[in-house]
Amino acid sequence: MVNKKNTLRIARIALMGAMLYTAQVALSFLPNIEIVTLLIVIFSKNFGKDGISACFVYVTLNAIFAGFGLWWVTYLVVWPLFALMAYKLSNIDNWIIWAVINGAFGLCFGAFFALPYIIVSPSYALSYWIAGINFDITHCIGNFTAAILLGKPIDSALKRVMKSEKIK
Fold first, then answer.
1. Whether the predicted pLDDT of 71 surpasses 90
2. DSSP characters for 11-76?
3. What domains are there in the chain, each with its CATH number?
């Protein structure tokens, strides 16, 4: 017999992962401007550990459509860890704090991608990160702005839908 609750949960995780990927592709024409970070916060705040699971769907979709590479391994670690952090901090309802967290994540994003290059050479990893710092600054500003402008409205809309549909 099929468990309806588990089926709905799996479908929700798949849908959230697909939404993350679609959000990334939709804004891919803008360099380092994305709402994936914001959506992960919202999903993790409202659906707990399912937000983390959605990150694995998102990362898998990225690999399917963009190919596997060192960047993908970093995605496999960075996005679920960010979702875990958002889940652990899910009691924060102040979107200014979330905007700062999202901005800091954007600023650190390039550093996360430089970490695997420490194996090659620490100086190479540092130069790799510094070479992309302008993109990290753009990422920071974009994440901060998205959270300030869209965080509370999207989170509130999702909460209203969940309440009216009795979703959890």
1. no
2. HHHHHHHHHHHHHHHHTTTSTT--SHHHHHHHHHHHHTHHHHHHHHHHHHHHHHHH--SHHHHHHH
3. 4-165 (1.10.1760)
